[in-house]
Amino acid sequence: MSCSENTNATPGDPLDALDDAVAAAAFRRLVRHLRHRHDAENIELMGLSGFCRNCLADWIRDAGAPLDKAAARDLIHGMPFAEWKRLYQGEATSEQLARMEASLAKNAPGH
């Protein structure tokens, strides 16, 4: 399962009533926070929460951003993804990969 397969949206969710400008400001703050916290690696985010920076890039494309995958990742990472990966992404351990798989399973509908 990829991080973009499930929105976890429920009918009547009060979140849907949140003003789009407020939601956009919170989203931008989240992205800027993640740009600052390079120590929070994507594999660790995936293991804890079932999403990462790359998921955010997928989600903005799913929401209609007219960007290709590379441009969306560059936008979220605040630099070309290849450069970010070279500077900040270490090799994932088998334990990290196992946590990520278990975490992603929780993203499935009905879990």
Order of helices and strands: HHHHHH
User: Which residues form runs of ≥5 with pLDDT under 50?
Assistant: none
Which homologous superfamily in CATH is the superfamily of the domain at 41-111?
A: SMc04008-like
Strand content of the residues, in percent?
under 5%
Shape annotation: globular
| CATH architecture assignment of the domain at 41-111 | Orthogonal Bundle
Q: What is the fold-level CATH name, i.e. the topology of the domain at 41-111?
A: SMc04008-like fold
What can you see in these coordinates?
With 111 residues, the protein is mainly α. The chain has a domain at 41-111: Orthogonal Bundle (SMc04008-like fold), CATH 1.10.3340.10. Helix content is 58%, strand content 0%. The chain is built from 6 helices and no strands. The protein has helices at residues 20-36, 42-49, 53-62, 69-77, 81-88, 94-105. The two termini are 13 Å apart. 17% of the residues are buried.
Structure summarized in a few sentences:
With 111 residues, this protein is an all-alpha fold. Helix content is 58%, strand content 0%.
Summarize the SSE layout with pairings.
Elements: H1 20-36, H2 42-49, H3 53-62, H4 69-77, H5 81-88, H6 94-105
